């Protein structure tokens, strides 16, 4: 299988320049954003149709041995003490990077095992490649063909579906919870 997409050096530099780190800066980033596509089950996906003011977009695959379950467990831990109202302010969007093996139903069951307020999507390979490129994510099938190397950022989208923050897998759970709380207050304005 061909490589899905590699992170371009210019996007990587841009992210480093814009401090895509653990500080709670919520500057609008020039990557990611709304997804409008039809998944393999025939569902028309438009992230603007979700009512939650904050979306956490994450790329992975359901048989990932480490980063995917660890990241989803961290999101769960970061939000488990939220009030019922706070839990309605965000949704996790899981996009599989292995549409050949993962169906939308499988992706949804996988992500909802960790976080009930989540949706999983599996798009055809061409659409997956476009979305990965839109998000400047890194995805490459391993040489043995059994798994993927992939970026592990959580892309945080605001109510207008603009990417406002990249949360690294090394960031603590408090970065996730504080980011959701800040963006869900709708007090952050686009620059």
Q: Could you explain how this protein is built, in words?
A:
The chain starts with 8 loop residues before the first helix and ends in a 7-residue tail after the last helix. Helices cover 31% and strands 20% of the residues. With 191 residues, it is of the alpha/beta class. A hairpin with a 6-residue loop joins strand 6 (139-141) and strand 7 (148-150). The chain has a single domain, classed as Glutaredoxin, CATH 3.40.30.10. Helix 2 (67-79) packs across helix 6.
Set down the secondary structure blueprint.
Layout (H helix, E strand, L loop, with lengths): L8 H9 L18 E3 L5 E3 L7 E7 L6 H13 L4 H4 L2 E7 L7 H11 L3 E4 L3 H10 L4 E3 L6 E3 L3 E4 L5 E5 L5 H12 L7
Parallel strand pairs: 3-4, 4-5
Antiparallel strand pairs: 1-2, 3-8, 6-7, 8-9
**CATH-derived topology:** Glutaredoxin
**Rounded Rg:** 15 Å
Enumerate the strands of the largest sheet in spatial order, edge to edge or round the barrel: 5-4-3-8-9
**Shape call:** globular
Instruction: State the CATH architecture.
Output: 3-Layer(aba) Sandwich
End-to-end distance: 41 Å
Helix-strand topology string: HEEEHHEHEHEEEEH
Q: What is the count of DSSP helices, taking H or I runs of 4+ residues?
A: 6
CATH class annotation: Alpha Beta
Briefly note the structural class of the backbone: alpha/beta
Approximately how much beta-strand content do the residues carry? Answer: 15-25%
How would a textbook summarize the main sheet?
A: 5 strands, mixed
Tally the beta strands: 9
Our count of domains comes out at 1
Percent in helix: 25-40%
CATH homologous superfamily assignment: Glutaredoxin
- Mean pLDDT, all residues: 88
């Amino acid at each position: 299988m061909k490589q899905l997409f590699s992170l371009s050096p210019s996007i990587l530099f841009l992210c480093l320049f814009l401090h895509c780190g653990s500080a709670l800066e919520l500057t609008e980033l020039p990557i990611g954003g709304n997804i409008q596509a039809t998944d393999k089950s025939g569902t028309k996906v438009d992230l603007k149709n979700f009512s939650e003011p904050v979306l956490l977009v994450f790329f992975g695959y359901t048989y990932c041995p480490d980063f995917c379950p660890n990241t989803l467990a961290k999101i769960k831990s970061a939000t488990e003490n939220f009030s019922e109202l706070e839990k309605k302010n965000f949704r996790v969007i899981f996009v599989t990077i292995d549409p050949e093996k993962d169906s939308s139903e499988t992706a949804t069951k996988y992500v909802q095992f960790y976080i009930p307020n989540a949706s999983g999507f599996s798009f055809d390979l061409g659409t997956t490649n476009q979305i990965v490129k839109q998000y400047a994510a890194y995805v490459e099938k391993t040489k043995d063909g059994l798994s993927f190397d992939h970026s592990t950022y959580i892309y945080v989208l605001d109510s207008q579906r603009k990417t406002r923050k990249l949360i690294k897998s090394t960031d603590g759970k408090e970065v996730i919870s504080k980011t959701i709380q800040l963006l869900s207050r709708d007090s952050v304005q686009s620059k």
